[in-house]
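Why do we care about 3D structure at all? Because function follows from shape, and shape follows, mostly, from sequence. That is the central idea of this module. The next example makes it concrete: a single protein chain, its amino acid sequence, and then its structure expressed as tokens.
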Amino acid sequence: MEENTWKINGFLMSGDRKVAEIRNNEVAQISAPIPLFLQNYPLLTWLKSRAICGYRSNTQILKETLGIPDASYIAAAMRVHGATITDNYWICQEGESLTYADVRFTKDTFADVALTGICSRTFTEEELRENCPELTNIGSYDKCWKLLNGTWWMFKEGSPWERFSEIFIAELGAKLGFSMAEYQPAGPYVKTPDFTHGRLNLELAEGLVGGNDYYPYNYDTFTRLDPKLGKEYLDMVFMDALCYNTDRHTQNYGVLRDQDTGKILCMAPNFDNNNALISHGYFRKPPSEWDRTIPPFVNFLKKRDLSYKLPDLDGEMLSSLAASVLPEEDIDRDSVVQMLLMRMQCLRDRLGQ
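And the structure:
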């Protein structure tokens, strides 16, 4: 079925509470909270934003395993009623008698298919009817959700340089006092726990700013919601500048909301830094005017006359941290340390600190 031919009727649910009525894809709010995304964009756009990436290498294998003939994003999302691991929203279609317990995810049966593309056994009819969290696991890298001791963990593929960058940046940010998602090594993958803990709702920035990742627009949007969000946003883009993250887009940052009231509590922990630092090679020269992260960050602060105090960066701490991350991998750790010290000095020089 083509995405533009879907006609959905029923209710948008938050847990077991009806928060909006849906008639022919039109959403009429009944009570708070509804997704911030739906305050700005249509229902089908919201569903598409929640669906597994169609061009991930293992997506088609997963869909074929699950017997999903429809290639559309909407079909994947609606197979699991639009539910995801990281919030409690879902769609109860007209004529269905379901509760949240019926649609929330409790098993990771197809995790390895999504992660590796290998279907090593025949699944039972009962398993094939399970709600599969992989169908709303977004992003371009092959990944999966695994349930470990009652906690959902996301496993993600990556080269040794990508995995090093992801883990190192998470630990560096935490040492500098920033809110960071936790990342751990897992063989050829990295793993990170669900930071919503099933109690909070992650709302991606895309729902607030669309695809506009322009610093001033994002800063103004978050600051209007809550001034502390503006500061937390600056902390994130500072780390991007320091660690050369050129892949910050509106589906890899956002806010955390209370599931009952919809109150925005804070920016989500800084996550998805695998395309940063040394993921595309080592930088052994000081940043130039053509650097893709430092000049935009500095220029934004200066044009807005914003004061941002740079944290202290200690060479010994960096060396110790670099030595502790993926010690078995062939990483030029001295180059990592020198890159970060050069980039921090460049930031200090340009900001007069």
